[in-house]
């Protein structure tokens, strides 16, 4: 996506300082020139920096290529991982959970080679290159086997045997799928057409060809640009799962996310921005990359579920980590935590689910340096106090209960707090702030009720008590604030009153219980009056409009499942 506003600086590392040596307009030429300098001179390292002049006159700089001299030692050791999903068949190793682990475990190696897990798993040459890299592969297998079989013994041996066997199968599969000549075509339509000739394995073959194209790109954003170009093609829809997976992989490295997001004041701000992006609600920040808007649109359309999971996985891991949320202003660390908490826990649920709820608690425990079960219970108490209203507290606690580790260690405390909510909070002001508009207040209570009803880990008795409380609170609100009366104003034409009521019933902001019954009863009171349809039609002067409104009324009755 380069143009006249884009140039490429070639820099060399001398005495621990980067020095500019040349500026060219073509990325490939710049990389070739830089590598030539490294081979012919005594520089410690070289790099190519893309400089993009924005419309506002500011410049955005991104490192697109960096390489150390042969004598310089590059750390390619394994990165620590705390957990790894157990794969039971070969297909599992290509899944997102497996690729996320590969992306973290081999992070240093993948960053040095500038390749994604999908490129690695779909290219026989790259698989062999990794296998030949000292004892990197053997160490990785041992590490994952130990995680998956902590007791050791025969179980650990079985896991190692499975992983080694699966690796051999992946190499053989990638070798069989490798094209005789590297494809010259770069458009997805051409790659898909070539892959279709492979028959039943066409999807895998297409990924092999896509990976081959991406391997030619030596920068994360260059890879992302190529994938976005594929996503824009008319033939993209059948291949969106592959495109989604590639975007997810590209967004695993921290550098790729930083380049995509642009300038962020601190980690806390960045994590909030990542949540915005994952939900397709993000605005481009200063120095955001050119693909940002396109990626955000795909998230908005819900076309990148794997990439969304990868981003939220990153947020949860950062929250569980030790990096400060406000490094440059340590006194603002608590405020940064509160901003992230309020972004993660909203009235539609927990962004990132139970894992994110647990990560917030772990961050708070580390923030106050109080460990063990008492520390987690205290963290949940304090977080509940910050959240304030009953809906968000219930959503947060319910999400934590769904996490097996939390339920096993301090589940009784969580259930006790939820039981207290069911007993003590009887007015809507204790559940949803009065500053919110009426529709949002009702929707919040209804979403809370839905989450409670869907919580598999909640005991049935407590679930019934909480759900009943939410329904009763919403019904009281309808009654106390005369919500239905304001919708069904006697001075308005009957047609408009009836239409507003049935739309209210089908709006999704009412709980299927007392509150919905109250609204439906008001609709029934109109339907049961003598000659309802004649009165409905007569209340609108224009006969044509009257007929259209009556048809719409009956359509809404049917769509909402209304049973007179």
Give the number of DSSP strands. Answer: 6
Q: What percentage of the residues does DSSP assign to strands (E)? A: 5-15%
> Mean pLDDT, as a whole number?
90
Neighbour order of strands in the largest sheet: 2-1-3-4
Amino-to-carboxy terminus distance: 59 Å
Q: Major sheet: size, sense and barrel closure?
A: 4 strands, antiparallel
What's the total helix number? 27
Q: List unreliable stretches of 5+ residues.
A: none
Task: Walk me through this protein's architecture.
The protein is an alpha+beta fold. The chain folds into 4 domains: 6-68; 90-249, no CATH class; 344-481, no CATH class; 486-559, no CATH class. Helices cover 61% and strands 7% of the residues. It has helices at 27-40, 96-105, 107-113, 117-121, 124-131, 136-148, 153-177, 188-196, 202-214, 220-231, 240-250, 254-261, 267-278, 292-300, 305-320, 333-344, 353-368, 372-387, 390-401, 404-424, 438-454, 460-480, 483-487, 494-505, 514-527, 532-538, 543-559, and strands at 6-14, 17-24, 45-53, 59-68, 345-346, 349-350. Strands 2-1-3-4 form a 4-stranded antiparallel sheet, with helices on one face. Helix 10 (220-231) runs antiparallel to helix 11 (240-250). The longest helix is centred in the first third of the chain and has 25 residues, at 153-177. The mean pLDDT is 90.
